[in-house]
């Protein structure tokens, strides 16, 4: 795993969805990350007020995942976040050492 780098991704799920659906979405992304690398930590911040309305929504369900993966995977992860309607916003960064 020497070519793996450590990343942190935060994604915001539409808070108006049912809590079971939100859990399924989070599990789906954890499984996707695990199949392409290693999940190091998952921190669900829960429902929070957004800093500004996004698509007329004022609340989102925040989740932060720290993981290690090959350098090409974060771009694919961000692409999947963008095409997933229930994900309001996402950001993936490489953690510096």
CATH architecture: 2-Layer Sandwich
Counted beta strands: 4
Q: How is the biggest beta sheet arranged? A: 4 strands, antiparallel
User: Shape, please?
Assistant: elongated
Sheet/helix structural class: alpha+beta
Secondary structure tally, helices: 2
Q: Would you give the CATH topology?
A: Alpha-Beta Plaits
The percent range for strand residues is: over 45%
Helix content: 25-40%
Question: Please, what is the average pLDDT?
Answer: 94
**CATH superfamily membership:** Ribosomal protein S6/Translation elongation factor EF1B
Order of helices and strands: EHEEHE
CATH class: Alpha Beta
What is the domain tally?
1
Strand order of the largest sheet: 2-3-1-4
pLDDT < 50 runs, ≥5 residues? none
State the distance separating the first and last CA atoms. 16 Å
Radius of gyration: 13 Å
Explain what this protein looks like in three dimensions.
The chain has about 100 residues and is α+β, with helices and mostly antiparallel strands. It has a single domain (about 5-95), classed as Alpha-Beta Plaits. About 30% of the residues lie in helices and about 50% in strands. The chain is built from two helices and four strands. The chain has helices at about 20-35, 75-85; strands spanning about 5-15, 40-55, 55-70, 85-95. Strands 2-3-1-4 form a four-stranded antiparallel β-sheet, with helices on one face. A hairpin with a 2-residue loop joins strand 2 (about 40-55) and strand 3. It is elongated and about 40 Å long. The model has no long low-confidence stretch (mean pLDDT about 95).
């Amino acid at each position: 795993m020497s070519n793996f780098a450590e990343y942190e991704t935060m994604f915001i799920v539409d808070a108006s969805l049912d809590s079971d659906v939100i859990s399924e979405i989070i599990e789906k992304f954890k499984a996707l990350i695990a199949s392409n690398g290693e999940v190091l930590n998952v921190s669900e911040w829960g429902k929070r007020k957004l800093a500004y309305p996004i698509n007329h929504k004022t609340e989102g369900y925040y989740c932060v995942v720290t993981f290690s993966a090959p350098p090409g995977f974060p771009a694919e992860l961000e692409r999947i976040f963008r095409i997933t309607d229930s994900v309001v916003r996402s950001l993936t960064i490489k953690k510096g050492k």
